[in-house]
Design brief:
Number of strands: 2
Largest sheet: 2 strands, antiparallel
Strand order of the largest sheet: 1-2
Shape: globular
Radius of gyration: 20 Å
Low-confidence stretches: none
Order of helices and strands: HHEEHH
């Protein structure tokens, strides 16, 4: 009985570690995409996205809402941004988030 309980406890810890690892991976991917976007690094930004028809991007704020469905539509939508923006410095990014 103790062996079964120990195995169940170990299995539970493995699942928690897997879940934590997945969460950390998702957070890292979001941080990489944001750094590429605000750093105006088009090639790195592209690498953060899956280039498939089921990719989806959206936003909503007090000014309205917008969305793009499919990688080609998302890429087209952001092309102008990457052509016209200047890179932000790390200090500017921190100041703009306050």
């Amino acid at each position: 009985m103790r062996t079964i309980l120990l195995i169940l406890m170990i299995s539970g810890f493995i699942e928690v570690d897997k879940s934590t690892s997945e969460i950390l991976s998702i957070k890292a991917a979001i941080q990489q995409e944001a750094a590429a976007f605000y750093g105006v690094d088009y090639l790195q930004w592209q690498r953060c996205w899956i280039h498939e028809p089921h990719a989806f991007w959206s936003y909503a704020d007090s000014t309205g809402a917008s969305f793009s469905s499919g990688w080609s539509s998302i890429d087209d939508f952001f092309q102008e941004y990457f052509k016209t923006q200047n890179k932000f410095s790390a200090g500017e990014l921190k100041a703009s988030r306050r």
